[in-house]
Protein 1
Amino acid sequence: MAADEQIRNAVKFWETIYEAGEGTVRFIKKSGNARTMNCTLDFSKIPQQHHPKSVNMAKILKLMQKNGIIHVYDLDKKDWRSIPFEKVDWLETKDKRYKVVPYKR
């Protein structure tokens, strides 16, 4: 696997999962516990009954930038989950691991 590259913003994080098809992410939950999740944004891997009624990219991007929450489909729990971008440690796709280092304004 290639050496860690950095992801510095929520939009790039979302794009990386989207382009890879799926990935594994490690983050810290609100409870303070670490969680590793296998997730996707690929609708071909998400059961039809879990597809959103509509996809409004402008709204998704605005929410990501405003509150740093990224919605992904958990492949193990078989449901949508929210990931707080500021609490992500790393993202791993099939061929690369990314260290997540949120850009501080």
Note: The CA atoms of residues 69 and 84 lie 5 Å apart.
Protein 2
Amino acid sequence: MFSHYGNEYRFKLKIFGASDSVNDFQTTNVIVYSTYQIETLDNSVARAWNPHFAQGRRHSGDMISHTVAGQSVVTVSVQNQSGGYAKGEPIIQEMQKTLQYLFGWGSRRHSRRYTIPEEFKIALVLPDAGNMTIMLEKGKTYYKLMNQRIKKKNLMFAMSRYLYRSTSDNDGVSLLTYLMKMMTLPENVSYVLENRVPFWFFDMETRQKVHCRLNAELIGTSEVAIEVSDGIWGSLPVEDLDTMVNYFYHEHTRSKTWRNASPKRLWTMTMGEEPTSSQLDLMKEFLVQNRTKDLIENRAKELMASLEVKYPDRINIIKHDNKTIMLVAGKLGDWAITATGNGRTSETQKVQVYFYDTMTSDNNVFKGPICIDNIHSNSSLGDQFASRALALLNDKLTVKLIYTIDRYIPPDCTEEDDECRIFKTTNIPLAELDEKSLDWGKVL
């Protein structure tokens, strides 16, 4: 079909999940037709390459491996990443990095990037999806995907999403529809529709930098509405919003349009006219009320409280010496989650987890702290409380996904007994515990 391109490669894409299990992965088969030699997929060349591209990968040594039959296996993994991810979706980020390395499209600073031509064509075929095919083209000054011009960053995002989707969807029409949606809505726009538009400015009265978030709604295929003041909405073309998010969220400084943009300029860009002095004052008050930090902290507190309401018999939040303790009744036993103290906190581990054990413990019946890392490095304290609690509600499954937990649970601890329940020593149901029920300073 594309034999005239001159080069054909076949590989199995193996994408690992975010758990610690080596069996948690999905696969899809890909055939690549290219007008240039892809050295990382060429069995005769790739053996001389060192595939240790992403430091800290559990599977880095096998990122690109080759079978006797000549088919390559390309591995994508977020496991054992040190420091976590500050922004974006980890698996999609790793997909983008892997594809850039695979095809030789890495950054100029990439020391292992091999030379590729300025112009080329590539066709990606999915044999498991009825030979569904997408075509991309590189010119001297542009990229095209399915004959539509697209930024390189958005191209990598769309390709990564498309290939990841193909691991669970073998319907060619469905995949094509999904791809076109990803091309129409860049990654940045999809992000702000779910998480609001990031913006910051310098408040000259307080001499502080104010970070805030603005509501956004898609009002057409190429335009997004933004709430710039209380009940007042302006709009931006998708391309302009994409550039705005690159500047205010990803900290790309090349944009002259948005560089050090003031609230006045934001109003003018979205409303098409300058604000009056009273409109500008109201706008600034509105932006201050929507500070990012306040929004995150309030949302996290609401989430923690909502979990206690949703699971009244299984989650209990108590206060002890100004310290928050979240108690969780799992299937195997009871757990306690507290904020990390003693200067040991990190962005991926702001909370500590303990397991209640009367079978092997004598004095301190809570065993821990147990190391459980967040995959993101920018999660708030409240979000980390909530994520641990939700995972520990089904601790029987979680223990199989996070290997650091298993050694803290006695082998004889089962769902059928109360050996690992606080009720065994206090005769008080978890939901009725308070700060006086136990000497929390000693048991934690």
Note: The longest strand covers residues 7-16.
Protein 3
Amino acid sequence: MSESSGLGGLFDKAKEKIKDLATDENIDKAAGEVKKRTPDNVDGYVDKAAAEAKKRNDDGPAARPAARPDGGLGGGPGA
């Protein structure tokens, strides 16, 4: 087995685990923890990010941004 196929398998397992953990309930828990540890003026941003994460969760893979050739995600300043 080559090193890349081993890493690819590990990467696939990690992606599956993330899908299992990225539930709406866990997104809400994470957002709550972020809001506890940050100033109140960022609460709106945290809520917006959590809502977007849950929306993308509901919409499936088609709603997720595609990776750019440089390894970043689609959109944003580097796109």
Note: The chain has a mean pLDDT of 79.
Protein 4
Amino acid sequence: MPVRDLTDPDHLPALDVAFARSRPAIGLGVDQPPPRILLLYGSLRERSYSRLCVEEAARLLQYFGAETRIFDPVDLPMPDRHAGDDHPAVHELRALSMWSEGHVWCSPERHGQVTGIIKTQIDHLPLSYGGMRPTQGRTLAVMQVSAGSQSFNSVNTLRLLGRWMRMFTIPNQSSVAKAFNEFDDAGRMTPSAYYDRIVDVMEELFRFTVLLRSHTAQLVDRYSERKEAGATVDPVADLSAIAVAGR
């Protein structure tokens, strides 16, 4: 199935709840219904550290009050492999992105860059799809895992891709060095500064998603697209004109 099950969603052994805000976006906007977050990871290994990081992120997001979906890319074909991208996994990925209000992308660093697995998922998300935009206006948090010392090559590339996909990428990010040392035998992240940073990033993503959710349509409203669609502006309903009237 394209959506991966999350085991033990309520079990957060590395989180010190004495310092955690269960509703971190209070005062920033309406946090109901729960913000919808799609999480993507970049490795198909049985013990994939990018997937394990994404699972920890999903548990934290649920703790903060979000609804999450983790896409499993195991059946995703290469781009352009099927005419019209007519493949069940592609359809599911795009539907999940349309469902979402925010994304989390986590990639291993391989040869100094993101993996083909994470890039393939992003490549299957067009800027425009059937008159809809699967990524535009959504928030984005980026993370990476490394086998060696800490690096930021993958998160830098993910930021570039997020900007290209017209997403609001949050300032904070996570880079987990020597990821094989950060998880126990059950695949759970142990308490560390790396885990604390993931908490910070998910807390910030939740806040920005709530903050922007009621303004997204206005923030991505573009002159060029209105002109192409022939959607003229009604002067009576144009709030920007009303705001500057009389100056």
Note: The beta strands are 3-4, 36-41, 67-71, 102-108, 139-145, 168-169, 174-176.
